[in-house]
Amino acid sequence: MAEVQLRLRDDEPVEDPAVTVDSFAAQTNANAVRIEPGDDARDLLPVLDRLKLVEVNFPAFTDGRGLSAARILREAGYAGELRAVGDVLVDQIAAMRRCGFDSFAPDVALDPEDARAALERWPQVYQAAADARAPIWKLRHG
What CATH code is carried by the domain that includes residue 131? Predict the structure, then answer.
């Protein structure tokens, strides 16, 4: 999985803007898609090889459905950029990273140092996840 891109605000234009999951199938040249709450990420599994960017929208920090979408895509082999957009809080980015996000474009800019600290806060983890970090028990017992 790629290194985390601390694009903490989406100020850089995307070459090919993301289209909705529903309209993606009809687009022959689209390579970016945006998953909204309620969309089923599994609808994208047959076309993962066409995608270079998947944006997952978090309209409210309390809506965790996007975390499941990220995990589904990473476990299915998606290797492109997976960007969390919307109401993304600094307290969430470590968990989002574990689910497979590698870039973040929050509605409200995050302090880069706070974001880095959040991503580095826990050097060890207890369970396997999409980020492929080895759980501490596996490190202890080979």
Answer: 3.20.20.70
How many CB atoms sit inside 10 A of residue 15's CB? 9
From residue 38, give the alpha-carbon distance in Å to each of 1, 57, 58, 115, 118. 26, 10, 11, 28, 28
> How long a stretch of residues is the chain?
142
At CA 89, angle to CA 76 and CA 68, rounded to 5?
Answer: 20
For the segment 10-41, what is each residue's pLDDT rounded down to a tens digit? 555 555 567 888 777 777 778 899 999 999 99
Flag whether 2 is in a domain: no
Q: CA–CA separation, 105 vs 80, rounded Å?
A: 16
